[in-house]
Every structure is written in structure tokens, then in C-alpha cells.
């Protein structure tokens, strides 16, 4: 049995490989770091960058649609999520954090660490520590169980 209920190490490995492949393809194919927060900012007009806004929107919309299609293909049912208030608060906190950290987990964690960027390594360690603390706090409070 997996360490966490519902956890699938093979699925996690395959997901990680796909994320790494997507990051490599983005860098090699488009010459861009696959930083989702920067691409989202470009799509919405909040940020600037060299990426075409149409391509940015395709990338942003493809993330949840691709996950949904994969979930339907593998699990034969749509994935379940936390209640909307939790998702809204989490999204706002993540957005604030990406601005504060000048990047997100995909830009720093996947692309920056693989390039041995010092600031990305520090940012990723901070993301991981905050994530561990959040999960521990939510478990202590009984949220999501």
C-alpha cells in the first residue's frame, strides 16, 4: 500500500516525467522557460514577454484540459477537488507567492533547478518547506479528511 491514501508512486513518476518532458520541449522548441505564472501573466496581459498571447492562452488552457482528459482516460471519471472556497483562497495565495518569489514552482523548481540556478534552488526549498508546513497544519486541523 502507498504511504498516502490514494497515492500511486508509478503515477507520480510518470507525471514527473511528463512535466520534465514538457519543460524540456518548451525550452528546446520555443526557447522559453516553462514558468506557468509568467505564461499566465502574459496570457492575461498582466505581464510582458516574448511569447505570443494566443500561444500563452493555449498553454494555460491546455494545463487543466490535459489533466482532465488524462483523468478521464485513466480513471474513467472526473477528478474530485476541494470545495471552491479552498481553491479560491489557495489560488490567491499561490498568485501572491509567485509575485513575491519572482516565479513559480514550474519556473524555479523544474526549469531553474535543472539549470543549477542558485536563486531557483533557494526558491524551491522555500516552496517545499511552505508546502510541508501547510499539509501538516491542514492535517492537524482535519481539513480535507
Determine Rg (CA atoms, Å).
16 Å
Mean pLDDT equals 80
Number of helical runs?
6
Reading the helices and strands in chain order gives HHHHHH
Strand content: under 5%
Roughly how many Å apart are the termini? 18 Å
Number of domains: 2
Largest sheet: none
Report the uncertain regions.
Answer: none
Overall morphology: globular
Helix proportion: over 70%
Number of strands: 0
- Helix and strand composition category: mainly alpha
Provide an overview of this structure.
With 145 residues, the protein is mostly helical. It folds into two domains: 46 residues, no CATH class; 64 residues, no CATH class. It is 72% helix and 0% strand. It has six helices and no strands. It is globular. The mean pLDDT is 80.
Concise account of the structure shown:
The chain is mainly alpha-helical.
List keywords for this structure.
2 domains; 72% helix; 6 helices; mainly alpha; 145 residues
Give the SSE layout.
Layout: H1 9-30, H2 36-44, H3 53-75, H4 84-100, H5 105-114, H6 118-141
Amino acid at each position: 500500500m502507498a504511504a498516502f491514501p490514494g497515492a500511486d508512486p508509478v503515477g507520480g513518476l510518470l507525471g514527473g516525467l511528463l512535466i520534465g518532458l514538457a519543460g524540456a520541449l518548451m525550452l528546446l522548441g520555443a526557447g522559453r522557460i516553462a514558468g506557468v505564472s509568467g505564461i499566465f501573466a502574459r496570457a492575461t496581459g498582466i505581464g510582458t514577454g516574448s511569447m505570443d498571447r494566443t500561444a500563452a492562452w493555449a498553454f494555460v488552457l491546455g494545463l487543466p484540459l490535459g489533466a482532465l482528459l488524462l483523468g478521464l482516460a485513466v480513471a474513467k471519471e472526473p477528478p474530485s477537488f476541494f470545495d471552491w472556497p479552498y481553491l479560491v483562497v489557495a489560488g490567491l495565495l499561490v498568485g501572491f507567492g509567485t509575485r513575491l518569489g519572482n516565479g513559480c514552482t514550474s519556473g524555479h523548481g523544474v526549469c531553474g533547478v535543472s539549470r543549477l540556478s542558485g536563486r531557483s534552488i533557494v526558491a524551491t526549498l522555500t516552496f517545499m518547506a511552505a508546502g510541508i508546513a501547510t499539509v501538516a497544519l491542514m492535517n492537524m486541523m482535519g481539513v480535507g479528511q
